[in-house]
Amino acid sequence: MKAATQAPDALIRDLQRSFAGGLAYAGFLSFCVNILLLTVPLFMIQVQERVVVSRSLDTLTMLLVIAVGALALYGTIEFIRSLTFQAMASIFARRLNLPALQAAVSASLEQGSGQSTQAIRDLNDIRYFIASSAIATPLEAAWSPIFLAVLFIFHPIYGLVGAVSLLILLILGVLSDLLTRRILKEANEAGVASINEVGASLRHAETIEAMGMLPALAKRWRGQQLAMIEHLDLGTRRGKFIAALTRSSRMTMQLAIYATGAVLIIRNEVSAGTLMAASILLGRLLAPFDSMIGDWRQWVLAASAWKRVRDLVQSRVSQRQTVPTPRTQGDLVIDRVVFAPQGSEQTVIKSVSFTLEPGEVLGIVGPSGAGKSTLARLLVGVLKPNVGGVYLDGHNVFLWERSSFGDMVGYLPQSVSLLNGTIAENIARMRNPDPHAILEAARIAGVHELIGRMPLGYDTNVNDGDFKLSGGQRQRIGLARALYGSPRLVVLDEPNANLDAEGEQGLIRAVNAARESGAIVVLIAHRPSIMQVVDKILVLREGRINQFGPRSAIAGMITPGGLVEMEPAKQAEQPKPVREVTA
Ligand SMILES: Nc1ncnc2c1ncn2[C@@H]1O[C@H](COP(=O)(O)OP(=O)(O)OP(=O)(O)O)[C@@H](O)[C@H]1O
C-alpha cells in the first residue's frame, strides 16, 4: 500500500536504498561464505603438513570435525543468502507492481497498450534476475582480494600467477562489455517493439482473418524481427566467443598454478599441501569473474528492463494525487479547457467552458472528428488538459486519486471493452462484487432479464469460448458497469450506437434514473433519438462550442447527422472562468 501512495522519485529512491541495504547484508553473508570457502584448501594443507607427517589419526579426526562443522555453517549461510536475494526480489516486485501498472496504464492511453504488458514482463525479468545466482557474483568478486592475499601468503609466485590471471579475466570482461552491451540492448529494444506491435495487432484477429491480412502483417513483423534476431545473434555470438575464451584461459591458468607449484615444491620453497590449496584458491578467485562474463547478457537485459521500469514510473505517477478524496456531490465545471494530443500539432479541444449541476443531463453532438470523445475523456480525467481544468465539486478530476474517483464516476467509452471475468465481476468493475449493487445497476440499465437468459446468468464469463456477447449486449452490460454504485458523474460515449429500440428505451430509462438520483449525466450521440432525454445540448464543432443551451432552444437546429445548420452563436450559457489554471 505504501508504494501506491508514494511519489515516484521517493519510491525509486526508497527502493534503491532498501535494495542497497539488502545487498550490504548479502555482502556480509558473502564475506562469511568466502571465508568458510577457505575450509577445504586449509584442510588439505593441514592434512599434508600435520597428519601425513605425524601420522596422527586423532589430529585427522579433529581436523575433520572442524572442517565438517565449517562446511555445515557454509551451507547454512549460503541458504540464508539465497533467501535474502529472494526476499529482495519479491519486495522489489511487490512495491513496484502497482506504481508500474498505474504508470503503464497512463502511458498506454497515449502510446498504445503495449506499455502495460511490457512493464509486467520487465518487472518479472528483474525479479528473476535478483533472485538468480547472477546477482551474487559481484559480491563474491568483491572478496577476491582476500583469496589473492592468501595466495601471496602461500608464496609470492602463487600470488603473481593469481594477479596475472585476474588481470586477464578483467580484460576479457571489459572486452565482453564493449563487444556485446550496445548490440544486446538494441536487440532487446527491437524485440520489445516487435512484441508490442504483434500484441497490438493480434487484438484485431477477426479483421486480420476476415480480410486475409496475415501474410502482409507477417511480412512487416518479419522485417522487425529480422533486425532483432540479427542483433541478438551477433551479440550472443560475440558473448559466447568471449565466454569460451574465458573458460579456456581459466583452465590454462589452473595449469599455470599447478606447474608453478610443482617448480616451487621441487625447489623446496613450499610444502606439497599448498599445491592443491593454491589451485582451489585460484579457482575461487576467478570463478565470479568467469560467471559474470558468462552471465553478461542477463546483466545487460536486467539493466535495460530496470531503466524502462524506472523511467516509466518516474515519468507518470507523479501526475495524479495519491490521497483519496471522499465521495462528493456538486457542480461539474469545465473551465477553458484546451487539449492537444502529445506530439500532435493539432489542438483538438479549444477553450471549452461550461457548467452542469447535479441532476442535469447534457447531450453533446457534433460532426465526426469534432472532439466529442476527447472531451468525454477529459471529463473523466483520462486525459490531462494542456490549459484549464475539469472540476467536480471543486476537485480537479485529472488529479483525483483514481480509486476514489472511480467511486464517483461511470464511464461508457465508445468502444466497449469488457474485461476477462464474469458479467457480475465486470459490472462490479472487477472489485469484490456487491450482489445488491450489481442487481440494482443491472436493473437500472435494463439488462437484468437479458443477463438472466445467458448460460450462467451473472456468472457467465464474457470471454467464454462457447458463448459470445453481441455488440449491443456488451454495450448494455457496459452501461450497467457505468451505473454501478450510483456514480455522481456518468459519461456515456455513443451508448446507443449498437442498440435496438428496446435497448434504447432501456438507455432512456437508465439516464432518467441517474438524473433522479442527482447524478450529472453527459451523453454523446450521433443518433438524435436519444436527445429527447437531455436537459441541455452542446454542439461541438472543430473542438469549439458551437452552441450550448437548453434542449428546447437547440434541438430544432440539429439535423439527423448531429449537425447544426447555423453559424456559431452567442453561447447560451458560458460560465465565467472559474480560476486560473494552467497544466
Ligand atoms: N491521441 C490522439 N492523437 C492524435 N490525434 C487525436 C488523438 N485523439 C484524438 N485525436 C484527433 O482529435 C480529433 C477528434 O477526435 P474525437 O475522437 O474526439 O472525435 P469525435 O468527435 O468523438 O468523432 P466521432 O464522432 O467520429 O467519434 C480527431 O481529428 C482525432 O484524429
UniProtKB/TrEMBL annotation:
PROSITE patterns, per database record: ABC_TM1F (PS50929), ABC_TRANSPORTER_1 (PS00211), ABC_TRANSPORTER_2 (PS50893)
GO cellular component, one term: plasma membrane
Chief location of this protein within or outside the cell: membrane
Top-rank taxon, per record: Bacteria
Gene Ontology molecular functions: ABC-type transporter activity; ATP binding; ATP hydrolysis activity; ATPase-coupled lipid transmembrane transporter activity
Keyword line: ATP-binding, Membrane, Nucleotide-binding, Transmembrane, Transmembrane helix
Topology in membrane: Multi-pass membrane protein
Domain annotation ABC transporter: ranges: 332-567
ABC transmembrane type-1 domain boundaries: 26-301
Pfam families: ABC_membrane, ABC_tran
Residues annotated as transmembrane: 23-45, 57-77, 146-175, 255-282
Keyword tRNA-binding listed: no
Biological processes per GO annotation: protein secretion by the type I secretion system
Zinc-finger recorded as keyword: no
Annotated localization: Cell membrane
InterPro entries per the UniProt record, alphabetical: AAA+_ATPase, ABC1_TM_dom, ABC1_TM_sf, ABC_transporter-like_ATP-bd, ABC_transporter-like_CS, ATPase_T1SS_PrtD-like, P-loop_NTPase, Type_1_exporter
Assigned protein family: Belongs to the ABC transporter superfamily.
Stated name of the protein: ABC transporter ATP-binding protein
Native organism: Bosea vaviloviae
